[in-house]
Amino acid sequence: MSEIPQQTHAGAEDAVGRSSPVTVLTQGWVTGVTRGALAFVVMAALGQAMAFAVNLAQDPQASAGTAAKLGWLYFGWFHRVAVTARLTPPVDELVRGLTVDVGLAMLLATFLAIAILYRGGRAVADRAGGGAVARALHGMKVAPAYAIPPLVVSALVDVDIPIPRNALVAGTLQMESSVLPWFVLPLLIAVATGAAGGLRSGRFELLSREPWGRRATGAIAGGLRMFVLGLVLSFVGLLVLAVVRPSAARTYFEVVSRPPTDQTAVIIANHTLLLPNQSMWVLVPAMGGCDGLSGGVSASFLCYSKFPESVSVSTEGLVAGTTVVEADVETAPPGYFLFLLVPAASVVLGGRYAARKRARLRSEAIAVGAVSGVVFAILVAVGSWLASVSVGLSTPAWGIPGNTSVLIGPGVWAAGLLALAWGVIGGGLGGWLGGREFPPMAQLARSSGIPTRRTGDPAAP
């Protein structure tokens, strides 16, 4: 125990936590179950609130049972669980009886679940104590209480409800025949997020392991900041575009406010939950990638080389009574290349943040900034998958073969590789900018008596 600074009671328990596997297995379960159950209740309640708001806006006479079942489907959409839609009239004979499995994550709600589970995992680890690995395992204890209730509810409840009235399709919404995704996807989110929260609670133990612990925490912090900045700046870029080209924003609001007007608030509310998805769909093309279709059909529809210059919306098309969007695709106008500033600013600022937070030497600052780019690439790849929409068709429709699965959105692998290049190069540059005043050699740092930085971290060796 003499090897670890005893600034806190939790720090004093680190050696005990590392040496006692029994402690890791037995402690923290009460807090973990409580926090996991709380997260489940909050997300389920949010789904119910969305569903009852939809019913109130569109059909106040709808039964509470129908609204509750729709709310459960919203919970699935918060976790990218696929929901089956069976289309019925008024669609025409070309697609009548079509079964479509649609999976998407309403990322604003997904991020809320991540935040709650992260804090829960951190609370479990703070209470149980232990080393970094033990704390990560403690943090995972929020997962069972979060993932088991969806499995039980999905196994007991039969969901078969009409699709809420809209201008696109009619039919019914159903859960998939397999309830396993309702358990696996929430479990994966809870395990990863709870472990991250638990690891965060043990940052002092990590920082005491110079120099790799300090560098690792800096790289993680820098990569996370790159990702958050990328999403925020993508959204800001769209707001700037709406000011520069107000016709696009005007067209959007004209479309969503068309009769029946009771759908306007519902569309905007759902769009709000999808704002992070929208930002991912902007961030990847801004890096030079493409949004498109992959899987059974491959096509690109948004990137610098394939840009929808003009978009028209009509109510006449392949499917009677639906809204059809048609676009003229060209190379992006020169002004749109300013979106390159979004990833550039994100990775440079993230690398600079990582270097100033944890680095001590000039070369170390560059390395920490560059490694932050690896974390950024992982987050972009996962975010691209979550932001995409998976579509499975049972029969041929709209030129897509039957029994085909298609992923619509940013290309996951291409997005990850592009983010890796941007992150490593830009993060290294940001690290250099943030560490220019640092000494070039460890010996110089010792001889010059440089004090511990204001973050209060342990001094460099």
The description of the largest β-sheet is: 8 strands, antiparallel
Strand content: 5-15%
**Largest sheet: spatial strand order:** 3-4-1-2-9-10-5-6
| Total strand segments | 10
**Gap from first CA to last CA:** 20 Å
Helix tally equals 18
Overall description:
The chain is α+β, with helices and mostly antiparallel strands. Helix content is 59%, strand content 12%. The protein is built from 18 helices and ten strands. The strands form two sheets. It has an eight-stranded antiparallel sheet with strand order 3-4-1-2-9-10-5-6, with helices on both faces. Helix 6 (107-128) crosses helix 9, helix 15 packs across helix 16 (362-387) and helix 16 runs antiparallel to helix 17 (412-434). The longest helix is centred in the middle third of the chain and has 33 residues, at 212-244. The two termini are 20 Å apart. 43% of the residues are buried.
What's this model, at a glance?
The chain has 461 residues and is α+β, with helices and mostly antiparallel strands. The protein has helices at residues 9-12, 14-19, 21-26, 29-58, 64-78, 107-128, 132-139, 143-156, 180-201, 203-207, 212-244, 246-256, 264-273, 275-286, 341-358, 362-387, 412-434, 442-447, and strands at 82-87, 99-103, 160-162, 171-175, 291-295, 299-302, 307-314, 324-330, 389-393, 404-410.
What key phrases describe this protein's structure?
single chain, eight-stranded antiparallel beta sheet, about 60% helix, alpha+beta, about 450 residues
